[in-house]
Amino acid sequence: xxxxxxxxxxxxxxxxxxxxxxxxxxxxxxxxxxxxxxxxxxxxxxxxxxxxxxxxxxxxxxxxxxxxxxxxxxxxxxxxxxxxxxxxxxxxxxxxxxxxxxxxxxxxxxxxxxxxxxxxxxxxxxxxxxxxxxxxxxxxxxxxxxxxxxxxxxxxxxxxxxx
Length: 163
Fold this sequence. Notes:
The protein has five helices and six strands; from the N terminus they run βαβαββαβααβ.
């Protein structure tokens, strides 16, 4: 199974860099455990070109910092109808999935991990509490990386929510 974990955010804005930190943590774990079939990508924001990047994947997991009122993190299923937005500055995961479906006639199962952040100033460094939230999300996701069919089947437990 080809899985893409794609994080986005600005590491120069404190907790907005949670996605990039998550990717680093996941890459380290995957390398140590010789897990195959994983690809990683990160950027400041999603772009329309990302529709091509997800077209040949069996599963896509987007990761982003969140300002939402969460306890720590949550996972939502991304559909082509999930907050479809596009501006010249950013695209949503739902827009990317919709664009992939429109162009490539495919829409891989996709999820978004929202990790609660707290500080967004123009400076590097993630807050300690946000790192704790990231670690909780990381530990939660590991079994689904090892058995992705559980996530695709909707067996993600209480952290899965509809968008």
